Amino acid sequence: MTYEEYLDEVSTLITEMYKVSDADAIKWVVRAQAADFFTLHDDDEAMRTEERAMQDAKTVYEQRNKSRPEIFRK
């Protein structure tokens, strides 16, 4: 999948797995992207798998309210 499709998949999984709004899931993924969380995914297509998307969705969701990194707060 493309990098953009991958980010969309992570957002979709967050909404499905954690019953949050699309807006919140997108916000968290965009913040993670801005903080270079997905940089390697952009460079390496092999990282853009369904399994990895599930792992990343979990990580983004779990980190969204932690005091660090600031990527999940604004």
Can you walk me through this structure?
The chain has 74 residues and is an all-alpha fold. The protein has one domain (3-72). It is 65% helix and 0% strand. It is built from 4 helices and no strands. It has helices spanning 3-18, 22-34, 39-43, 50-63. The protein is globular. The chain starts with a helix and ends in an 11-residue tail after the last helix.
User: In percent, how much strand structure appears in the residues?
Assistant: under 5%
Unreliable residue stretches: none
Mean pLDDT: 88
SS summary, helix count: 4
What string gives the helices and strands in order?
A: HHHH
Count of individual domains: 1
Gyration radius, to the nearest Å? Answer: 11 Å
Q: How much helical structure, as a percent, in the residues? A: 55-70%
Distance between the termini: 29 Å
| Shape descriptor | globular
List key phrases describing it:
4 helices, 65% helix, mainly alpha, 74 residues
What's the quick description here?
The protein is mostly helical. The protein has helices at about 5-20, 20-35, 40-45, 50-65.
Describe the secondary-structure layout:
Elements: H1 3-18, H2 22-34, H3 39-43, H4 50-63
